[in-house]
Amino acid sequence: MTDKLTVSVLGTGIMGAAMARNLARAGHTVRAWNRTRAKAEPLAADGAQVADTPAEAVRDADVVLTMLYDGAAALDVLREAESALRPGTAWVQSTTAGLEATAELAGFARAHGLVFYDAPVLGTRQPAEAGQLTVLAAGPTAGREKVTPVFDAVGARTVWTGEDGATASATRLKLVANSWVIAATNATGELLALSKALDVDPGDFFALIADGPLDMGYLHAKAALVLEDRLTPAQFAVATAAKDARLIVEAGRRHGVRLDVAAASAERLERAAAQGHADEDMAAAYFASFDEHPA
Asked: What is the pLDDT of residue 3?
């Protein structure tokens, strides 16, 4: 089979738009749809066809890629596209949906004869735009030749976690990874807030840990977004991070594990969102340390 595919991208937010753009640049035929059409329109300049409905987007597609807010949104959109779905179509489900929702989505795929790939991605806006995401994927070996060109267009690396997407093995790994990302981001915000409260120059802390085991690039990257007031455009938005944190807490609860840090992180992110930072980078959880916007 040809390695040039017709790919339907449903959801063109921060990540979906970048993935659609890279698919088009790789020579694939891309049909993009977003609930708010204006968010998909710029993709026309990159060669994507902007569809009015999910059904229009998925008709005769080789691969359907969903990158939506959560599992419920992904299921709703696939139901809207139901009349145009073709048995045998590969469904690359990249929404961070959580364990229960992934099982439900796999059930929908099974009922409609779709080949289901649980395929969340690791990375934020910048690696997405550069086609440098890490794709975490679970799905049948037979048929991977159809989805591999998609993964190659959007990512620098694909990590296969299993042969049955319904087990959500890729989503499980994504939740573990995001638990660390969210915890590290919130810890960064708190150290900056404490530094401010105690009149400590954050630079002194960075110098203290420089080149040692406590130092890491992610700390510097997220701290810089706050210190240099570069929270927009978001690499990974506060509201989305809060949703993922809740999925992590729920996954732990269902498996008998209490995740206090994840629960506290979700609360901080939700508080920052309520303060007006929902669409800013998740580093804006920093502001949740203050009752009023710090001077």
From this structure: 76
